[in-house]
Structures are given as C-alpha cells and as structure tokens.
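Incident log, support desk, overnight shift.

02:14 A customer reports that sequence design results differ from what the structure should imply. Their input is reproduced verbatim below. On-call engineer (initials T.W.) acknowledged and began investigating.
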C-alpha cells in the first residue's frame, strides 16, 4: 500500500549509478527513503542534492532490502527559488540540515521539529535578503526544542560565558523574525554568537562532532 508525505530533504547519498538513499524530515519525524531510479522527465529529481528542498513523496509502506521505504513518485511541493539560485541561501540551508542531522536520532518520531524547519525554510526560500539574526533565531528555536532554554535558569553547568549567550538566544526565541529587513542589534557578530552556540552544545555533549558547514558561514556572517 502506498502513502504520501511532505518532506524536507536533509541529504542524499548515491547508492548506485541511478539510485539514491534520501534522508528526510517529515511531519512524522525523520524518515529515510530508497529512490530506485531517477527519471529525467520529472524535474523534481534534479533538486534532490539541495538541502531543505520541500518535496511530496509517494512511497510503499513495505521496506526494501535496504530497510528503507521505496519511493514510487516524488514531486516538488514548492519550487526552491532562492535555494537553487543563491549561494548564500544554499549555505544557510546546508547548515540547518546538518544541525538537524547531528542533533536528532535517525529514527526520530516527532512533529514539532518539522514545524520549526518549515517556518524557517519557507522564509529562506522567499526572502532575497537574509536578516543578520536568521540563523541565530533558528538555533534559538532548536535550543528551545531541545529544552535548553527552559533549563537555563536553574542549570549549574552553564558557566557565565554561556549564560550571557543563552540570555541572547532566549531573547531571539521570544522575538520571531517576520521580515527580511528586520536586523537586530547584537552583543557580538552573528558568526561569533553562532560559533559560541556550537561550542556550548559541544561542551554539554549534545553535539559530538564538528559542524562542517559552519566554516562556510564564517565568510558571510563574520
């Protein structure tokens, strides 16, 4: 029996010359799919290597021998205007996708995270100008999702250096970005605060590996 789901592609891995394993975030949580072949007649397939593109996938409920759901059809749910044509937007999407992959289990069953990503991905794909706090606001929502902001007031583990950071992130979480022109004064550069956020997650063993896409963002937000 086939089912249909909306999904954000986190990353794809070539399996054979024409097939791919696609890791995605859906309203049900993280799901991995097997794409047996690429149809060049369907233009949706040319975008599968772009992180955070929004697709609609029809898949078979029975898993394949790779223990993945087999994709029967896949179409673009919304055209990736900015993500496919702008290097900066693509770099931000890559960072967001990498954060999701590294902070959540592969078998995550959850709806809240999809809603967070959907909100930011939609803005990223529509806004030509990216506000200076866009990625920090995304990370603030991720910190709240992980329960970190709610714990900060009684945490004995956060040293003063990180307490100031968490106060800034809480402020950004409580002030959602609604316009591409909404730049906010920050206590430091966006990249410094972003890098400090990554260091905090590593210090708490929440993030256990390097975030490779962070280096690219340094050239843009420093």
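02:41 Re-run completed on a clean worker. Output:
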């Amino acid at each position: 029996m086939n089912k249909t789901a909306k999904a954000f592609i986190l990353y794809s891995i070539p399996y054979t010359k024409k097939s791919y394993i696609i890791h995605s975030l859906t309203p049900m949580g993280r799901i991995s799919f097997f794409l047996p072949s690429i149809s060049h007649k369907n233009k949706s397939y040319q975008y599968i290597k772009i992180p955070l593109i929004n697709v609609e996938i029809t898949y078979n409920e029975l898993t394949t021998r790779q223990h993945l759901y087999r994709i029967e059809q896949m179409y673009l749910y919304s055209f990736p205007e900015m993500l496919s044509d702008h290097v900066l937007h693509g770099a931000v999407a890559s960072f967001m996708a990498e954060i999701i992959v590294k902070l959540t289990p592969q078998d995550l069953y959850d709806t809240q995270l999809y809603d967070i990503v959907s909100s930011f991905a939609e803005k990223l794909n529509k806004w030509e100008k990216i506000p200076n706090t866009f990625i920090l606001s995304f990370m603030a929502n991720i910190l709240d999702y992980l329960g970190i902001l709610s714990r900060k007031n009684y945490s004995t583990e956060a040293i003063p250096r990180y307490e100031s950071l968490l106060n800034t992130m809480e402020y950004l979480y409580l002030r959602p970005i609604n316009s591409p022109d909404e730049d906010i004064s920050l206590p430091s550069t966006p990249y410094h605060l972003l890098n400090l956020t990554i260091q905090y997650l590593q210090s708490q063993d929440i993030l256990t590996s390097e975030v490779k896409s962070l280096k690219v963002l340094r050239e843009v937000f420093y």
